[in-house]
Amino acid sequence: MRLTALSLLSVTTVASLFLAGCSDPGVQVAQTKRLKALEVQLAVVLEKLDQSPRGRADADVVARLDRRIGALESKVDDILTAMEFLAVDVDMIKRNTWETLKSIQTEQDGEEPEAPAEYRKLFEPAAREQLRAAAAAKGVRLLEDRVEVDGVIIQNRAMLEFMAVVMGGKEHESIIAVTGNAEHGGAMPKGLAGMINASILALGFQKGTPVRASRDGKVLPPEGETIYIYIEWRGEDGKTVRARAEDLVYNLEKKQPMGRGKWVYVGSRFERDYATSAVVYMADLTGDLVATYSWPNTIIDNVTSEGADDIYYTCLTPRIPKIGTKVVLVFARKELEAKEFPSIELPEEDGSDGSDD
User: Fold this and answer.
1) Looking at the structure, do residues 98 and 151 belong to the same domain, yes or no?
2) What does pTM read for this prediction?
């Protein structure tokens, strides 16, 4: 029975190797070669088994072996079919990726539709107080040198794609959910992102250019004026703490906090809803507010090299208040006085929940 055991082991090995390889298209060729080699070995074993008096007498073992070979051949056929579908899916993904890149470059090609008239009217000099009142109704405070809006800490130990989002946005990968005058836990406040954007423009900022794609497929980084972002909360002693937003974000690549002065105002973008022909402000749909991972719909982006990927930035946990802490998010044209934290380097297990978002 040693030959029979070896034959069965070969069949099991062939199946396991091929099934493991098919999940990674990069090793399919190598695994196929190994499969063919093992099939040859199996044929030799079967021939020896057939020639052995004991093997011929063991018809039941041979029958079971034949059934396992048949099952293996069926699995191989299924895998080859799945691989054909995978090739079609890869080709489709390539096409869809390029279509997405083309949709990102609206600002570059001048294809972005004009903002609605009622939105543009907010920036007329005579409408300054009207804008201030409209902003206040959403919970946005437009001051002479800054814009303030209330929020809440929602993550202090997670990988990040955003520093802040509007409530109801990508809260699982952001430190702050901006709520305005609403309570956290409800639906995304309608028009809150647009009102934050309008208030930032009222400070004198010019709209920048979100991340986009060139005609040859290269991703072009965001461009815009530097904007300073701060988070304020009440400390344990009852006094207000003001921290730079980047001081709460940790760069896993450089093993230090995010570089200062790297936030830029890009202003999100307008798109036409082809179902209704209405022009919509994308940040109002997605809730994207302050991005650590460059994204075309965000109002504020960053110009760090690590901003091109979502694997580098995480919460600087020891500096962030506990989840549920109410905060004020501040946007300013000039630097404000803020807390200076002692230098820090996170151990491997800190600053991340270990998830791959």
Assistant:
1) no
2) 0.67
